[in-house]
Each structure stands twice: as structure tokens, then as C-alpha cells.
Write the C-alpha cells for this entry.
Amino acid sequence: MPKTLILLFHPHFARSRANKALCEAAGALSDVEIVDMQALYPDGRIDTDAEVRRLIAADRIVFQFPVQWYATPPLLKAWQDAVLTRMFYIAYEAEGAKLAGKPLLVAATAGNVPDAYAPDGANLFPLRDLLKPLRATAHRCGLAWAEPFLIYDAHKADDEALQAAGEHYVARLGRLAAAAQRGEAA
């Protein structure tokens, strides 16, 4: 069965309401595997063999995380340095080439409101622009970039808003899977 692999990079998942809501909603899907990377690698020592196998086995890849100081959490960067460097600079033919064309979706949560991510806002740049290093990574790795799934004001969202976000996430994952099966960009 084709599957969506969600790699959750949240340094404080136990305190997260937004990322928990997304994971709970996505976890109800039969073709989704969610891996809590912080729980798996609390010391930051990444098992690259296991991660390479996980990526190769997936049909679709999702990086899910809270945006922290305009960037990804440190473990995601460390994971990229360890896993993607190996796959694309050391063992491209045997590993990296096997990811060609797989869709990559970024699901990011932000604590601030959308207006803060504007040229005249507190954060100066749109959130999508802050994710451009991940888009460049997807391009370099031959992954099909999917339009990011973004949640704003994550800290203040009430239960109803979080439930709606989870429903939208499930729908987005469904569209990602359907587009991948048709061979289209998501």
C-alpha cells in the first residue's frame, strides 16, 4: 500500500496543541506513518541506516514542525545533514536516486498571526519565503515540492480551530496522495 511518511520534528511535542491535533487527525489514515523524531532521537544521534530505509520505503514525505526563529527545529537540520548528505553526496546511486519524484510536503505551525508574516509585519517575510531553504533542498534531492500546509496563531487556537486544522490536514494529505498516484505535482 502506498504510504505517506510524516517525520515530526517538534522539540516539545508534549506541550504542543497544534502539532498534536495534526498528528491525531493524520494518524487516523491507514496509509500514514508518523514518526516522532525527537522521541526517537532525544540525544540527536540519528540512525542514518534506519532513516534511509524509511525514506526509500515511503511514497510521500512530510516534514512537520513548528517554525522556530524563522527556521526549522535543530533536529531537522541535523537530520538533513546526516541523512540527506549521505543519500545525495555519498551514496546517490544506491540511495538518493530512489527518492526522485517523491512528493515533499512541509507542514509548519507558527505562533504568530498571518499579518505578522508580511513585508510590514513583525516577521518581515511571508512564512512561505522562510521555507525556501527546504524548497531548495527538495529541488536538489529531486523531490517534488508540494505547496506547504501552514497553520498560524498555533498557540492561541481553540479546540474548534485545531479540529478544523486537523480536518484540513487530512484533506491536504489526501490530495497529496491522489496527485502522486496520478503523477502530478501536488
Summary: Helices lie at 18-27, 37-40, 48-57, 74-90, 127-130, 132-140, 159-182.
